[in-house]
Design goal:
The chain has a domain of about 240 residues: Rossmann fold, CATH 3.40.50.720. About 45% of the residues lie in helices and about 15% in strands. The strands form 3 sheets. A 7-stranded parallel sheet has the order 3-2-1-4-5-6-10, sandwiched between helices. A 3-stranded mixed sheet has the order 7-9-11. It has a two-stranded parallel ribbon with strand order 8-12. Strand 1, helix 1 and strand 2 form a beta-alpha-beta unit. The structure holds nicotinamide-adenine-dinucleotide (NAD) and thymidine-5'-diphosphate (TYD).
Amino acid sequence: MAGTGESILVTGAAGFIGSNHVQYLCESRPDARIVALDALTYAGNMENLAGLEENNRFRFVKADIRNADALTALFEEESFSLVVHFAAESHVDRSIMGPEVFVDVNVRGTLVLLELARKHKIARFCQIGTDEVYGSLGPEGRFTEQSPIQPNSPYSASKAAADHLVRAYHHTFGLDTVITRCSNNYGPYQFPEKLIPLMILNCVEGKPLPVYGDGKNVRDWIHVRDHCTAVDAACRKGRAGEVYNIGSDNEWANIDIVKRIASLVESKTGKPRGACEALISYVTDRPGHDRRYAMDSLKLRHETGWMPAYDFDRGLADTVDWYLVNESWWRRIISGEYRDYYDKWYGDR
Ligand code: NAD
Ligand code: TYD
């Protein structure tokens, strides 16, 4: 793997994790050129990359990963040594409402990138995957890289298909690939359709907190910055053709997270004690809702020395602070297309 002086393409760079990763790369790789690509869908936001345009090692390109002509031109213009592929349709509930775009972007879009990476002999292709490809766990055990691939939602099925294509490009064409599979992320710039920001915003606005089913589904939460350092470790030190799970051993039942957020917002905004918790509203469960995710990330830790740095108490409190301070960022989002989605999905639950 190339070290400094390389040129890195980051797809999905204006989204939640992609934008955090670009920020991280700009800080941690002073010699690298960073090309940030994004189609700017509902989830992509240039405000997430604010300030970076002043950096002369940074370039933003608005393009759709399914547009082979645009991407061919870009790969001819630049000479990438590393592709870090975050771009995707990423929300399970939207995949239930409309699966086609998930297959189109997550599978066909990944194929377009793989083909260009192969033709241009890119030194490494890093596929950003998810723990959701492994399906659902019972009360015990954790997913390892050997766990069977058993996706249950259209989102996770499309991500699994993309991972399989990446694997095939390594085996068939010798492309140097790594696949990372991470647990649920939280932190700054997360689009408010996902559990943690949605609950923070609804607490602030005094709106119902919609908890699916019995609220006892379990997710394994990692701070987005720890995800970024883990991806970077896999890019630098991971072995070609391998899969690396990423997680920070931090399992929570949804209802307990929602109660913690309610209490944090109450204390940080001076709302009366219990005012936010009283907004909890159990709603019809998500169809096919996976019960529990938990990641074993020992392989990445042993092979690369990566360790998560964030403690959940601090990470969650910082995240609540970030949304309180950046109200204009989320107010612009919730006043747009998001409102239609919200009314459609939650309207009859
Ligand atoms: P996000 O929805 O916030 O961002 C996705 C970005 O991809 C957006 O900026 C969007 O504009 C862009 N995009 C979508 N379609 C595109 C297209 N056709 N061409 C170019 N860009 C396009 O998602 P996220 O939470 O930042 O997730 C990023 C990646 O990480 C995804 O691949 C997701 O599967 C994976 N992942 C997410 C989590 C999580 O908890 N959020 C956990 C594990 C893995
Ligand atoms: P989400 O943030 O959508 O991530 P994922 O489905 O990819 O894990 O949801 C996290 C958990 O929170 C999941 O078990 C579904 C649940 N959830 C709710 O209970 N209410 C909500 O309004 C949302 C968006 C999610």
